[in-house]
Structures are given as C-alpha cells and as structure tokens.
Design brief:
mainly alpha
C-alpha cells in the first residue's frame, strides 16, 4: 500500500465516506483509535536453488 492511498483513505474516514480502512501509520494518524484485527507470522520467500547460497 502506498502512502498516497493511505492519505486518501484517511480523508475518507474523517469525512465518514468509509467506515473501515487498513492504513500505513506514518505517525500522522493521531486522530484515530486503533485496535488489532489479527496477528500474522510473516515469512520471507525465495527460490529453492543453490544460486542464492554461497
């Protein structure tokens, strides 16, 4: 998600045009309250080949 999309969605939330959004927190979201929706384990994925190994 880009920061530009976050800015657009932030304005839509403030104007009550949308009720829910997933936003990138750049430190400017102080006018909103937050709650955790879920916890996810994140993984890196790479090809299974010797090319990546030293």
């Amino acid at each position: 998600m880009t920061e530009e999309l976050t800015a657009t969605m932030t304005e839509q939330l403030k104007a009550a045009r949308i009720a829910l959004a997933i936003l990138f927190d750049d430190g400017q979201l102080t006018s909103f309250s937050f709650s955790s929706a879920l916890n996810e384990m994140l993984f890196t994925v790479r090809p299974k080949s010797n090319f990546c190994r030293k």
